[in-house]
């Protein structure tokens, strides 16, 4: 072996030969949320109340089964252990919920911005349509203008045309080019 290969081997970290505990962080998070949800239910409170009352009754009245006499030190130890595990589990569940809320809030903000942009676009389109409709000639306007044109044409018509169709020479229905 050369010095170079041994120095390269020493500078490269080696994986552990011991079997490692690999845990999916989401699985742990789901578990902690489940436990935290269970701690907040009436079912959990009822079960814990029954266990504590049973523990106390057995240790006070069952003379032969006294495994935890009156100060109930073992029961206190169980409560302390429960509190020691419950608090971090609840905090982990709160952190996961906070992350979900943050993602949801970001998505809501993005959606609100998109909705606002769409609304502004539609408002601009509606305003342009209103302007375009305002410039369109209506039926009453066209009728009025045609009446004015007819009146102007009648004013411009010579006196001989006003006498009637009997006094005017008969005109052919064919255009002038075809009369010849």
UniProtKB/TrEMBL annotation:
Organism: Mycolicibacter sinensis (strain JDM601) (Mycobacterium sinense)
Name this protein carries in UniProt: DUF1003 domain-containing protein
Top-level taxon in the UniProt lineage: Bacteria
Coiled-coil ranges (or none): none
Pfam families in UniProt: DUF1003
UniProt keywords, alphabetically: Membrane, Transmembrane, Transmembrane helix
Transmembrane segments: 44-64, 70-92
Region of interest (Disordered), ranges: 1-22, 155-180
Lineage: Bacteria, Bacillati, Actinomycetota, Actinomycetes, Mycobacteriales
Secretion signal span: none
Keyword Chloroplast attributed: no
Biased composition (Polar residues): 1-15
């Amino acid at each position: 072996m050369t010095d170079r290969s041994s120095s390269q081997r020493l500078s490269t970290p080696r994986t552990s030969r011991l079997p490692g505990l690999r845990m999916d962080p989401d699985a742990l998070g789901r578990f902690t949320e489940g436990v935290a949800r269970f701690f907040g239910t009436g079912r959990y409170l009822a079960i814990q109340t029954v266990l504590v009352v049973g523990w106390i009754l057995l240790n006070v009245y069952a003379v032969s089964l006294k495994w935890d006499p009156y100060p109930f030190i073992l029961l206190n130890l169980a409560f302390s252990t429960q509190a020691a595990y419950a608090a971090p589990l609840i905090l982990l569940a709160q952190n996961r919920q906070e992350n979900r809320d943050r993602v949801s809030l970001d998505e809501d903000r993005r959606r609100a911005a998109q909705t606002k942009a769409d609304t502004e676009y539609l408002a601009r389109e509606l305003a342009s349509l209103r302007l375009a409709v305002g410039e369109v000639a209506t039926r009453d306007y066209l009728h009025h203008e045609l009446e004015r044109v007819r009146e102007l044409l009648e004013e411009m018509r010579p006196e001989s045309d006003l006498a009637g169709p009997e006094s005017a020479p008969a005109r052919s229905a064919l255009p002038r080019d075809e009369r010849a």
